[in-house]
Amino acid sequence: MYPGWLKSLAPFAQGLFMLACLTLVLTGLYLAAPLVNQVLLALFLAVMLDPLISRLAQRGIPRILSSLLVIVIMLLLIVITIMSLSASAPDLMQLSRQAPALIAARLQTLVQSLGQMGMALTPDELLKFVDASAVVRLITTQLSLIPGLLSWWLMVFLMVLFMLYELPMFKTLLRASMRNAALFMALEEGIQSVTVYVRVKTLTGLLGGLIVWVAASASGMKFAFLWGVLMFVFNYIPVLGSFLAAIPMVIQTFILFNAQASLLVAGFFVVLNLFLSTLLEPLMLGRRLNMSLTVQLLAFLFWQALLGMTGAILAIPLTFLLKKVWLALR
User: Fold this and answer.
1) What share of the chain is helix, strand, coil (3-state, %, to 5)?
2) Domain residues for 296?
3) Which residues lie below 8 Å from residue 297, measured CB to CB, with a gap of 6+?
4) Are 93 and 140 in contact (CB under 8 A)?
5) What is the greatest pairwise CA distance in the chain?
């Protein structure tokens, strides 16, 4: 497995050399993250869509035509979503400018309670500890960048189109050229498990996003569609996703209503997260991936630091596939 000169080194020197190589690889991935993210996401989407395209091809629809049709439908959905989110940007910008004053007014009651306990603080001093308006400003900033995402997604789907067309030929070539049959089997099994995982997360994310959208609309909250989209996207993030999606909505409720209403919203998200992640997803997934919560959290932190938001979303699939490859090579 190792070159002769590497075997001649002491075990500690071998480990140090491999650590240095790993550091170089990770540094390269970090620096090339904008390009790597597009390629990874395109490859991921191509692998996920391949069963559907193959099924359509068996029914007589040419592969290139079915691939183009599916990609156009997905691109239209993304364009509609981006246009809807962009419409929320002006109102969010106005809310971000008003947020400090509104939060200070809401904190007045808390200041009075702390004063009775002998802790003399002002709302402005409390805002130094928790700058809730920063969350609103962050979301507003991201929304302002959304129109530029169209060209980014267009390039991703262009790569997906070519990957879907050439995927059967690539799999045949890979099967013929790969000497380690166990490695190919491990990759195939890993991809099948990841495909099921992504389908389940997509279904539960759609369900969660729809519930949040309907609940927010029914309660008269602004930006209901935005909160539903956040719930759908953040559902792919392991362990912390649903809780991260709850933060902006809890802050908005606190700003526009009161602390009691924000606690109700937080409780709603806790119940929703328990329903999706501890009841529905295990029922649909079983023990297919068999990854503990600690491993999922560490995978999220590692891939998010390396590749950003795309790494956070693909953390579980990437970690599971690397685990399967590592076990096959041992």
Assistant:
1) 85, 0, 15
2) 178-330
3) 238, 239, 240
4) yes
5) 78
User: How far is it, in rounded angstroms, from Cα 165 to Cα 138?
Assistant: 39
Please report the pLDDT score of residue 175 as a whole number.
72
The pLDDT averaged over each successive group of 10 residues in the chain (330 residues) is: 62 79 88 88 88 86 88 87 77 71 68 64 58 58 64 86 85 70 75 83 91 90 88 86 85 80 89 84 70 83 88 86 79
In a domain, 69, yes or no: no
DSSP three-state, residue 223: coil
pLDDT of the residue at 232: 92
Q: What is the 3-state secondary structure (H, E, C) of 178-231?
A: CCCHHHHHHHHHHHHHHHHHHHHHHHHHHHHHHHHHHHHHHCCCCCHHHHHHHH
Q: Is 308 exposed, middle or buried (0-12, 13-18, 19+ CB in 10 A)?
A: middle
**From the centroid of its chain, how far is CA 157?**
18
Cα distance between residue 68 and residue 64, in whole Å: 6
Rounded CA gap, 315 and 291, in Å?
12
- Residue 219: inside a domain: yes
Cα–Cα distance between 37 and 51 in angstroms, integer? Answer: 23
Q: Does residue 208 lie within any of the structural domains?
A: yes
What is the C-alpha separation between 240 and 234, in angstroms, rounded?
Answer: 8
Quick check: is 262 in a domain? yes
CB 46 within 8 A of CB 167: yes
End-to-end CA gap in the chain? 10
The answer to whether residues 326 and 192 touch, using CB atoms and an 8 Å cutoff, is: no
Tell if the pTM clears 0.85, that is, is over it.
no
> How many domains does one find in the chain?
2
Is 309 within 8 Å of 236 (Cβ atoms)? Answer: no
Q: What is the pLDDT of residue 57?
A: 85
Say if residues 213 and 225 touch (Cβ distance below 8 Å): yes
What is the Cα–Cα distance from 278 to 8, expressed in whole angstroms? 50
